[in-house]
Amino acid sequence: MKKLPDLEQLQDKPVVFYDGTCGFCQGSIQIALKYNARQNLYFAALQSGVLEALVPQAQIPHPLPDSILFYENGRVYTESDAALRIARHLDFPLSILAAFRIIPLSFRNFVYRLVAKNRYLIAGRTESCMLPSPEQRARFVG
């Protein structure tokens, strides 16, 4: 099992920040875990404080959007850009989703915001974050 990297080591790792109380978000994380055979994605709940410790304050959107955030190569991506950049790390056929970057950003983000706004209606809300398996735990931070 991989050792959990400290925050300094995470500076050059791709990290997915998600709403730990959102059933839709947790389901999405389960898909990412299953289809990221390279195991190069790391995960942290937005509620964990890791975002604030890892990313310079000026890069953190305020207020935090109803969105996942994706940290890669020193940059924070939001909304559809985050989702499609995460897709690039997934195995085929999910990696094909990254091709949706050809769709104009305004339309992509409109659809993303519509889903994000209704995510609790779609998949519910939980009182706590999911518990990863022992194998998956090494990829969760915070």
From TrEMBL:
InterPro entries linked to this entry: DCC1-like, DCC_oxidoreductase
GO molecular function: protein-disulfide reductase activity
Species whose genome carries this gene: Pontibacter mangrovi
Protein name: DUF393 domain-containing protein
Domain of life: Bacteria
